Amino acid sequence: MSVHYYHRKDGMAPSYVCASKTEPQCQYVYGTLVDQAIGDLLLEVVTSLTLELALEVHAEVSRRFDETQRLRAQRVERARYEAELARDRFLQVDPRHRLVATNLEAEWNEKLQLLAEAQSELERVNTERPQLSQQQRTEVLGLSSDFPRLWQDPRTPFREKKRLLRLLIEDVTLVAGDAIEVNVRFRGGPTRCLKLSRPMKVIEMRRTPSEAVHAIDELLNQHTEEEVATILNERGLKSGGGLPFRAKLVGGVRRAYGLQTRSARLRKMGCLTASEAAQRLHVGLPKFHQWVAEGRVRRYCVAPGVFMFLTDSPSTDESGHEEVQFNV
Description:
The protein is an alpha+beta fold and 328 residues long. The chain has helices at residues 31-45, 48-92, 98-126, 134-152, 158-168, 202-205, 210-219, 225-234, 247-256, 262-269, 274-281, 285-293, and strands spanning 2-8, 11-18, 27-30, 169-176, 179-186, 191-197, 298-303, 306-310, 314-316, 322-324.
Protein backbone atom coordinates (compact mmCIF):
# COMPACT_ATOMS: atom_id res chain seq x y z
CA MET A 1 0.00 0.00 0.00
CA SER A 2 1.18 3.49 -0.75
CA VAL A 3 0.60 6.57 1.39
CA HIS A 4 -1.19 9.66 0.08
CA TYR A 5 -1.70 12.95 1.90
CA TYR A 6 -4.70 15.26 1.75
CA HIS A 7 -5.40 18.67 3.29
CA ARG A 8 -7.71 19.16 6.27
CA LYS A 9 -8.50 22.20 8.37
CA ASP A 10 -6.13 20.97 11.10
CA GLY A 11 -3.30 20.14 8.68
CA MET A 12 -2.15 17.25 6.51
CA ALA A 13 -3.71 13.80 6.97
CA PRO A 14 -2.57 10.48 5.46
CA SER A 15 -4.50 7.78 3.66
CA TYR A 16 -3.27 4.31 2.67
CA VAL A 17 -4.19 3.09 -0.80
CA CYS A 18 -3.74 -0.24 -2.53
CA ALA A 19 -4.09 0.46 -6.24
CA SER A 20 -2.20 0.46 -9.52
CA LYS A 21 -2.48 2.32 -12.81
CA THR A 22 -3.99 -0.68 -14.61
CA GLU A 23 -6.02 -2.35 -11.81
CA PRO A 24 -9.11 -1.08 -9.96
CA GLN A 25 -8.52 0.28 -6.45
CA CYS A 26 -8.20 -2.66 -4.05
CA GLN A 27 -8.71 -0.89 -0.73
CA TYR A 28 -8.55 2.58 0.78
CA VAL A 29 -8.00 3.28 4.48
CA TYR A 30 -8.04 6.69 6.17
CA GLY A 31 -4.68 6.86 7.90
CA THR A 32 -5.46 9.14 10.84
CA LEU A 33 -7.27 6.37 12.72
CA VAL A 34 -4.51 3.85 11.99
CA ASP A 35 -1.71 6.24 12.93
CA GLN A 36 -3.39 7.04 16.25
CA ALA A 37 -3.73 3.34 17.05
CA ILE A 38 -0.07 2.66 16.19
CA GLY A 39 1.03 5.60 18.35
CA ASP A 40 -1.02 4.30 21.30
CA LEU A 41 0.48 0.84 20.81
CA LEU A 42 4.02 2.22 20.88
CA LEU A 43 3.31 4.15 24.06
CA GLU A 44 2.05 0.89 25.54
CA VAL A 45 5.00 -1.29 24.58
CA VAL A 46 7.85 1.17 25.16
CA THR A 47 8.21 0.58 28.91
CA SER A 48 11.18 -0.01 31.21
CA LEU A 49 10.56 -3.77 31.06
CA THR A 50 10.52 -3.95 27.27
CA LEU A 51 13.59 -1.73 26.99
CA GLU A 52 15.49 -3.93 29.46
CA LEU A 53 14.52 -6.91 27.37
CA ALA A 54 15.72 -5.07 24.26
CA LEU A 55 19.11 -4.55 25.91
CA GLU A 56 19.33 -8.25 26.70
CA VAL A 57 18.52 -9.04 23.08
CA HIS A 58 21.20 -6.56 22.04
CA ALA A 59 23.73 -8.33 24.27
CA GLU A 60 22.83 -11.67 22.69
CA VAL A 61 23.18 -10.16 19.22
CA SER A 62 26.63 -8.87 20.23
CA ARG A 63 27.68 -12.35 21.40
CA ARG A 64 26.56 -13.89 18.13
CA PHE A 65 28.33 -11.13 16.23
CA ASP A 66 31.58 -11.91 18.04
CA GLU A 67 31.21 -15.61 17.22
CA THR A 68 30.64 -14.79 13.57
CA GLN A 69 33.68 -12.53 13.54
CA ARG A 70 35.83 -15.35 14.94
CA LEU A 71 34.73 -17.50 12.01
CA ARG A 72 35.61 -14.70 9.60
CA ALA A 73 39.04 -14.32 11.24
CA GLN A 74 39.64 -18.06 10.82
CA ARG A 75 38.72 -17.70 7.16
CA VAL A 76 41.34 -14.93 6.81
CA GLU A 77 44.01 -17.10 8.43
CA ARG A 78 43.15 -20.03 6.17
CA ALA A 79 43.31 -17.78 3.10
CA ARG A 80 46.66 -16.38 4.25
CA TYR A 81 48.04 -19.92 4.79
CA GLU A 82 46.90 -21.03 1.30
CA ALA A 83 48.37 -17.86 -0.26
CA GLU A 84 51.73 -18.56 1.40
CA LEU A 85 51.69 -22.16 0.16
CA ALA A 86 50.97 -20.94 -3.37
CA ARG A 87 53.83 -18.41 -3.04
CA ASP A 88 56.28 -21.12 -1.91
CA ARG A 89 55.31 -23.41 -4.78
CA PHE A 90 55.81 -20.59 -7.27
CA LEU A 91 59.25 -19.66 -5.87
CA GLN A 92 60.43 -23.29 -5.91
CA VAL A 93 59.57 -23.96 -9.55
CA ASP A 94 62.38 -24.14 -12.12
CA PRO A 95 62.19 -20.95 -14.22
CA ARG A 96 62.82 -23.02 -17.31
CA HIS A 97 59.44 -24.66 -16.83
CA ARG A 98 57.57 -21.58 -18.02
CA LEU A 99 54.15 -23.23 -18.37
CA VAL A 100 54.26 -24.61 -14.83
CA ALA A 101 55.53 -21.28 -13.50
CA THR A 102 52.72 -19.41 -15.22
CA ASN A 103 50.06 -21.68 -13.73
CA LEU A 104 51.59 -21.45 -10.24
CA GLU A 105 51.79 -17.68 -10.49
CA ALA A 106 48.09 -17.51 -11.49
CA GLU A 107 47.20 -19.76 -8.57
CA TRP A 108 49.19 -17.51 -6.20
CA ASN A 109 47.43 -14.39 -7.49
CA GLU A 110 44.06 -16.10 -7.03
CA LYS A 111 44.90 -16.97 -3.42
CA LEU A 112 46.07 -13.40 -2.78
CA GLN A 113 42.75 -12.12 -4.15
CA LEU A 114 40.79 -14.44 -1.85
CA LEU A 115 42.91 -13.27 1.09
CA ALA A 116 42.26 -9.62 0.26
CA GLU A 117 38.50 -10.24 0.04
CA ALA A 118 38.43 -12.08 3.36
CA GLN A 119 40.42 -9.32 5.10
CA SER A 120 38.22 -6.61 3.57
CA GLU A 121 35.02 -8.31 4.76
CA LEU A 122 36.45 -8.80 8.26
CA GLU A 123 37.42 -5.12 8.52
CA ARG A 124 34.12 -3.90 7.06
CA VAL A 125 31.91 -5.96 9.34
CA ASN A 126 34.07 -5.13 12.33
CA THR A 127 33.08 -1.46 11.95
CA GLU A 128 29.42 -2.51 12.31
CA ARG A 129 29.97 -4.12 15.71
CA PRO A 130 26.89 -3.43 17.89
CA GLN A 131 28.26 -1.82 21.04
CA LEU A 132 26.59 0.12 23.82
CA SER A 133 28.39 2.04 26.50
CA GLN A 134 27.02 2.26 30.03
CA GLN A 135 25.85 5.80 29.27
CA GLN A 136 24.04 4.59 26.17
CA ARG A 137 22.35 1.83 28.18
CA THR A 138 21.14 4.45 30.66
CA GLU A 139 19.84 6.59 27.82
CA VAL A 140 17.97 3.63 26.33
CA LEU A 141 16.29 2.87 29.65
CA GLY A 142 15.40 6.55 29.93
CA LEU A 143 13.36 6.24 26.76
CA SER A 144 10.53 4.73 28.83
CA SER A 145 9.81 8.26 30.05
CA ASP A 146 11.31 10.28 27.18
CA PHE A 147 9.54 8.41 24.37
CA PRO A 148 5.94 9.35 25.36
CA ARG A 149 7.00 12.96 25.86
CA LEU A 150 8.76 13.05 22.48
CA TRP A 151 5.99 11.19 20.63
CA GLN A 152 3.15 13.33 21.99
CA ASP A 153 4.97 16.64 21.59
CA PRO A 154 3.23 18.49 18.70
CA ARG A 155 6.56 20.10 17.86
CA THR A 156 8.10 16.71 16.98
CA PRO A 157 8.25 16.62 13.14
CA PHE A 158 6.56 13.74 11.32
CA ARG A 159 9.96 12.94 9.83
CA GLU A 160 11.38 12.16 13.28
CA LYS A 161 8.34 10.10 14.22
CA LYS A 162 8.84 8.01 11.08
CA ARG A 163 12.43 7.37 12.11
CA LEU A 164 11.30 6.23 15.55
CA LEU A 165 8.79 3.90 13.91
CA ARG A 166 11.45 2.34 11.69
CA LEU A 167 13.58 1.58 14.75
CA LEU A 168 10.75 -0.31 16.44
CA ILE A 169 8.45 -1.69 13.73
CA GLU A 170 9.30 -3.94 10.79
CA ASP A 171 6.02 -3.46 8.92
CA VAL A 172 2.26 -2.99 9.28
CA THR A 173 -0.35 -4.90 7.26
CA LEU A 174 -3.83 -3.40 6.78
CA VAL A 175 -6.95 -5.37 5.86
CA ALA A 176 -10.05 -3.24 5.30
CA GLY A 177 -13.41 -4.97 5.82
CA ASP A 178 -16.32 -4.23 8.12
CA ALA A 179 -13.52 -3.30 10.54
CA ILE A 180 -9.90 -2.35 9.86
CA GLU A 181 -7.46 -5.09 10.86
CA VAL A 182 -4.00 -3.73 11.69
CA ASN A 183 -1.26 -6.37 11.94
CA VAL A 184 1.94 -4.93 13.43
CA ARG A 185 5.24 -6.79 13.19
CA PHE A 186 7.93 -5.46 15.51
CA ARG A 187 11.62 -5.79 14.82
CA GLY A 188 12.78 -9.06 16.29
CA GLY A 189 9.60 -10.98 15.47
CA PRO A 190 6.82 -10.10 17.98
CA THR A 191 3.45 -9.23 16.43
CA ARG A 192 0.25 -7.52 17.54
CA CYS A 193 -3.16 -7.45 15.88
CA LEU A 194 -5.49 -4.48 16.33
CA LYS A 195 -9.17 -4.28 15.34
CA LEU A 196 -10.39 -0.76 14.54
CA SER A 197 -13.92 0.36 13.75
CA ARG A 198 -14.14 1.98 10.35
CA PRO A 199 -14.60 5.77 10.53
CA MET A 200 -18.02 7.12 9.62
CA LYS A 201 -18.49 8.46 6.12
CA VAL A 202 -18.83 12.19 5.68
CA ILE A 203 -22.57 11.89 5.09
CA GLU A 204 -22.93 9.93 8.34
CA MET A 205 -20.81 12.41 10.27
CA ARG A 206 -22.97 15.31 9.03
CA ARG A 207 -26.24 13.55 9.78
CA THR A 208 -28.40 15.40 12.31
CA PRO A 209 -28.36 13.61 15.69
CA SER A 210 -31.55 11.64 16.39
CA GLU A 211 -32.04 13.60 19.62
CA ALA A 212 -32.27 16.84 17.66
CA VAL A 213 -34.63 15.34 15.06
CA HIS A 214 -36.94 14.05 17.81
CA ALA A 215 -36.88 17.45 19.55
CA ILE A 216 -37.78 19.26 16.29
CA ASP A 217 -40.70 16.89 15.74
CA GLU A 218 -42.06 17.61 19.24
CA LEU A 219 -41.41 21.35 19.28
CA LEU A 220 -43.11 22.04 15.95
CA ASN A 221 -46.40 21.17 17.63
CA GLN A 222 -46.17 24.35 19.71
CA HIS A 223 -43.53 26.56 18.06
CA THR A 224 -42.46 28.06 14.76
CA GLU A 225 -39.24 26.97 13.08
CA GLU A 226 -37.54 30.16 14.31
CA GLU A 227 -38.60 29.41 17.88
CA VAL A 228 -37.57 25.77 17.53
CA ALA A 229 -34.07 26.86 16.44
CA THR A 230 -33.76 29.11 19.50
CA ILE A 231 -34.89 26.34 21.89
CA LEU A 232 -32.50 23.79 20.34
CA ASN A 233 -29.58 26.18 20.74
CA GLU A 234 -30.54 26.85 24.35
CA ARG A 235 -30.48 23.09 24.95
CA GLY A 236 -26.98 22.92 23.50
CA LEU A 237 -27.97 20.72 20.55
CA LYS A 238 -25.98 21.00 17.32
CA SER A 239 -26.61 20.13 13.70
CA GLY A 240 -24.87 17.25 11.94
CA GLY A 241 -22.15 19.68 10.88
CA GLY A 242 -21.66 20.87 14.44
CA LEU A 243 -23.34 24.23 13.73
CA PRO A 244 -25.98 26.05 15.78
CA PHE A 245 -29.53 25.80 14.45
CA ARG A 246 -31.30 28.46 12.39
CA ALA A 247 -34.86 28.45 11.05
CA LYS A 248 -33.66 27.48 7.58
CA LEU A 249 -31.70 24.56 9.00
CA VAL A 250 -34.70 23.39 11.05
CA GLY A 251 -36.77 23.48 7.86
CA GLY A 252 -34.13 21.46 6.03
CA VAL A 253 -34.12 18.77 8.75
CA ARG A 254 -37.92 18.70 8.71
CA ARG A 255 -37.98 18.10 4.96
CA ALA A 256 -35.14 15.57 5.06
CA TYR A 257 -36.88 13.43 7.68
CA GLY A 258 -40.41 13.87 6.32
CA LEU A 259 -41.76 15.70 9.39
CA GLN A 260 -45.07 17.55 9.18
CA THR A 261 -44.99 21.30 8.66
CA ARG A 262 -46.18 23.68 11.36
CA SER A 263 -49.24 24.60 9.26
CA ALA A 264 -50.14 20.92 8.70
CA ARG A 265 -50.02 20.32 12.45
CA LEU A 266 -52.28 23.34 13.05
CA ARG A 267 -54.66 22.12 10.36
CA LYS A 268 -54.83 18.83 12.22
CA MET A 269 -55.83 20.78 15.36
CA GLY A 270 -58.63 22.47 13.39
CA CYS A 271 -56.98 25.81 12.72
CA LEU A 272 -57.92 27.89 9.69
CA THR A 273 -56.48 30.81 7.78
CA ALA A 274 -57.96 34.29 8.42
CA SER A 275 -60.19 34.22 5.34
CA GLU A 276 -61.36 30.67 6.09
CA ALA A 277 -62.11 31.54 9.72
CA ALA A 278 -63.98 34.76 8.75
CA GLN A 279 -66.04 32.83 6.24
CA ARG A 280 -66.88 30.22 8.83
CA LEU A 281 -67.89 32.89 11.34
CA HIS A 282 -69.94 34.70 8.68
CA VAL A 283 -68.16 38.00 9.19
CA GLY A 284 -65.94 40.18 7.08
CA LEU A 285 -62.19 40.23 7.49
CA PRO A 286 -62.18 43.65 9.25
CA LYS A 287 -64.63 42.37 11.86
CA PHE A 288 -62.66 39.14 12.23
CA HIS A 289 -59.37 40.98 12.75
CA GLN A 290 -61.12 43.15 15.34
CA TRP A 291 -62.09 40.03 17.27
CA VAL A 292 -58.51 38.80 16.99
CA ALA A 293 -57.21 42.12 18.35
CA GLU A 294 -59.69 41.89 21.23
CA GLY A 295 -58.40 38.44 22.06
CA ARG A 296 -61.71 36.77 21.31
CA VAL A 297 -60.11 34.45 18.75
CA ARG A 298 -57.07 32.27 19.49
CA ARG A 299 -54.33 32.65 16.94
CA TYR A 300 -51.21 30.54 16.32
CA CYS A 301 -48.05 31.71 14.63
CA VAL A 302 -46.97 29.63 11.63
CA ALA A 303 -44.01 31.83 10.65
CA PRO A 304 -43.10 35.48 11.21
CA GLY A 305 -46.20 37.48 10.10
CA VAL A 306 -48.18 34.33 9.20
CA PHE A 307 -50.95 33.08 11.51
CA MET A 308 -53.70 30.48 11.67
CA PHE A 309 -56.78 30.64 13.86
CA LEU A 310 -58.77 28.18 15.92
CA THR A 311 -62.49 28.99 16.16
CA ASP A 312 -66.03 27.61 16.22
CA SER A 313 -69.33 29.22 15.15
CA PRO A 314 -70.32 32.48 16.98
CA SER A 315 -72.85 32.61 19.77
CA THR A 316 -74.46 35.44 21.81
CA ASP A 317 -73.53 36.26 25.44
CA GLU A 318 -75.95 37.51 28.14
CA SER A 319 -75.45 41.14 27.08
CA GLY A 320 -76.42 40.36 23.51
CA HIS A 321 -72.91 40.68 22.09
CA GLU A 322 -71.55 38.09 19.65
CA GLU A 323 -68.95 35.83 21.21
CA VAL A 324 -66.55 33.55 19.42
CA GLN A 325 -66.09 30.12 21.00
CA PHE A 326 -62.58 28.72 20.56
CA ASN A 327 -60.73 25.69 21.70
CA VAL A 328 -57.85 26.10 24.11
